[in-house]
Amino acid sequence: MSIAEKFVTMEYGPAPEDPKEAQAWLQRHGHRFGHFINGAWQTPAAGEYFDTLDPSNGEKLAVVAQGSSADIDRAVQAARAAFPEWRALTPHARARYLYALARLVQKHSRLLAVLETMDNGKPIRESRDIDIPLVARHFYYHAGWAQLLEQEFPEYEPCGVVGQIIPWNFPLLMAAWKIAPALATGNTVVLKPAEFTPLTALAFAELCQEAGLPAGAVNIVTGDGSTGEALVKHPDVDKIAFTGSTEVGRAIRSATAASHKRLSLELGGKSPFIIFDDADLDSAVEGLVDGIWFNQGQVCCAGSRLLMQESIAETLIGKIQARMSTLRIGSPLDKAIDIGPIVARVQLDRIRRMVGQGVAEGATCWQPQVALPANGFYYPPTLLSNVHPTSIVAQQEIFGPVLAAMTFRTPREAVELANNTVYGLAACVWSENINVALQVAAQLKAGVVWVNCTNLFDASCGFGGYRESGFGREGGREGLLEYLQPTWFKNAPKLPAVPLPPPQHLEEETESGPPAIDRTVKLYIGGKQVRPDSGYSMEVRSADGRLLGEASLGNRKDIRNAVEAARKAESWAKATAHNRAQILYYCAENLSLRSDEIIRRLTAAVGAKQAASELELSIERIFSYAAWADKFDGAVHNPPFRNIAIAMNEPIGTVGMICPAEAPLLGFLSLVLPALAVGNTVIAVPSEAYPLIAADLYQLFDTSDLPGGAVNIVTGYASQLLKTMAEHDDVDAVWSFVDEASAAAAKAMSVGNLKQVWTNEGRVIDWFNPKLAEGRWFLEHATQVKNIWVPYGE
After folding, report:
1. pLDDT digits over 551-568, tens only?
2. What is the pLDDT of residues 652-678, one digit of tens each?
């Protein structure tokens, strides 16, 4: 036998990592941990503890404090007390603290890696070579943002006290993803680690002490779901950042709806791994190993749906099975191991149950002949082929080492299958034809797309999802914005609640001569004037009670028709930015031509002075967003790999809007224009106080070459129409800029598909002040960032 043949047939010998330093650390704490509050260790208020286990053998590692609402309250009070001092630090001072944390993570990297593996079960190679270096990278990167914050975000301020809840699959890395940007922007933190994996967060608390971080800047309260619930519901928390399941994300959205808490959610995924027939199949298989069997498949962006072109399916399946047979399963502290244990018994049972259901639905199950360790929570790498697109294993997140395989014939079919899910977190595309790869990447509904690579992450590149994978981003400039808000907005006064009077049927004074021509405004759907489904209209009166006309009373069917029209007009998003700008400029031109008649009609509702001001500023606002249309572009990130990450600002999709009552023309255009400029389609409910403006608006759009359905206008009672839009699963976002009750209702009723919700929180916005009512703040809410990773060089 040749040396080469011997090399290929050699078995890997064991290469165990010595856990003595981690065991010594646990021993120093007596295998018992309290909460880290106000810079010190504190016993739980209720005196309750729970066990954290080593999933490789089921043995107890330590007992950890069970947090109660009293513990959360102590931690929030500490964070609130520390906030003024932390916020008042110079940017350089905060940068030095974050830099110190980065250095300490590197200094203690081996201890943290071993501890992570013992508590979570992931192979030590992953903890040592991926997780912990990325933890340090996040603190380094955000130390830089802390230094530059006042230069780059001069009119923004921190949210305040931030509650953060992280999952068990990347315990310390998720903590870094959240703590680093929060601290860099001047917030203070209360972190709730996952119940199964609290130890590295508690080790990080010691690093905070070693770095001399001010007491209360970072607080860590351990516990189960009830602890997280107490944090979410605490009235003195200004923002919640959550990573976890979509089900819990819905509960958090509902629980925070009536509050003014900022919210970012990074939730589940069912990511497609698309392989075309011209791909380098051997490289694609290695990518697939990283995509689904990395961290035992316990990854929210795992490539758990294999979509392979039909012509290569048989060959590819053979290569995958051969590679699966070489994967080594065993103790995660063994450096020669590929797959470790599942994090807990309950998760192992879920994986078994879902695979069984997938087989019952017709899938073919294949697993390599491998011996699993006698103790611990192990599950073999699994391939499910012949999977139907509607099967549970193709639609629901399994969160385990299970790959569901399907075939496609054309790129179009690949895109349709890839997007056939409620999720939209990540995707992979493998093809040697870069045109095909980028064309498909652009059409995928996913926040991250890897081209000929997989599972690449960096602090400079935003990460987050579309649709029911959540909203908000972590990492990059866009991730930093999640912890900032415009300085003026938080202190804006509350919008006074001025309920509209009920419809009155007054006898109108008539003059001699022929009767006035009736002015009843119709709805505007799909580029056409249409009568309301209800057959009713609402009277519109001036402040002194004069009848100005009647507006159609839209209902839920009208909203449904408007959504359908908006979806058919999605080609608006594919128009070039230059083309969108030209059409908006036409709108300004046509509004100017009709200014006298619009001012005359608007004067009856808001007075001559405001009417003239609204018209003049509306023309300026249209010009502003026509200018922005081809300038609000993305960026090219430079992560420390042989890759670029193209950060693209993409439209959210179909946006439902409740427009402000107080500025019928200017308020409407201030919301609709930024959404249009970046390619969204819109269903807008105009000012309830003066909905007659709709007639002037649809005539404006009709004469400006705006495609039918790009803007749809439904008049009626805002509260009723808001409910239909918020509950409609084909509406991607809702903007509500009326009273506080509507803001809360928009959030509460949007949990069905977790659509993005943006409101004025019932606060006054001066629509006449362009510093407050136009620009980047509006455009950022009209877009979502997609990062496309493309490798280059060698």
Report:
1. 999 999 999 999 999 999
2. 999 999 999 999 999 999 999 999 999
The answer on pLDDT for 721 being more than 70 is yes
Q: Write phi, then psi, for 649 (nearest 5 degrees).
A: -80, 110
Confidence of residue 497 (pLDDT cuts 50, 70, 90): low
Mean pLDDT, residues 6-25 taken together: 85
Q: Which residues pair with 528 in a beta bridge?
A: 525
**φ and ψ at 735, to 5 degrees?**
-115, 125
Question: What pLDDT does residue 507 have?
Answer: 38
Task: Using the structure block, give the residue that is written with the tokens 């068990």.
Answer: 168
CB count, 10 Å around CB of 565?
23
Are the beta carbons of 33 and 51 closer than 8 angstroms?
no
**Token representation of residue 534:** 């209800």
- Looking at the chain, how many residues does it have? 794
Q: Is 783 helix (H, G, I), strand (E, B) or coil?
A: strand
Tell me the C-alpha to C-alpha distance, in Å, between residue 169 and each of 105, 341, 684: 19, 12, 41
Q: Would you tell me the crossing angle of helices 246-256 and 740-748 to the nearest 10 degrees?
A: 160
Using CA atoms, how far residue 701 sits from 552, 585, 591, 692, 696, in Å, is 19, 11, 9, 15, 9
What amino acid occupies position 727?
Answer: E
Sheet holding 643-651, edge to edge: 364-366, 382-385, 402-408, 305-309, 272-275, 426-430, 448-451, 783-791, 643-651, 635-637
Give CA angle at 205 (199, 210), nearest 5°: 130
pLDDT of residue 505 exceeding 60, the answer is: no
Q: Encode 105-115: b = buried (16+ Cβ within 10 Å), e = exposed.
A: beebbbbbbbb
* pLDDT single digits (tens) 604-641: 899 999 999 999 999 999 999 999 999 999 999 989 88
For residue 347 the two structure tokens come to 């998760």
CA distance 791 to 450: 9
Helix segments in 571-730, DSSP class H: 571-574, 577-593, 595-606, 608-629, 664-677, 693-702, 718-727
Amino acid at residue number 117: T
Strands of the sheet containing 188-192, edge to edge, are 40-42, 35-37, 218-220, 188-192, 161-165, 239-243, 262-266, 470-471
CA 85 – CA 74 distance, rounded (Å) = 18
Q: Which residue has the higher pLDDT, 288 or 490?
A: 288
Mean of the per-residue pLDDT values of the chain: 93
Q: Known catalytic residues?
A: 266, 300
Type of residue numbered 251: A
3-state secondary structure of 182: helix
pLDDT at 15: 87
DSSP assignment letter at 29: T
User: pLDDT at position 638, please?
Assistant: 87
R_g of the chain computed on alpha carbons: 28
Residue 789: enclosing H or E segment and its boundaries? strand 783-791
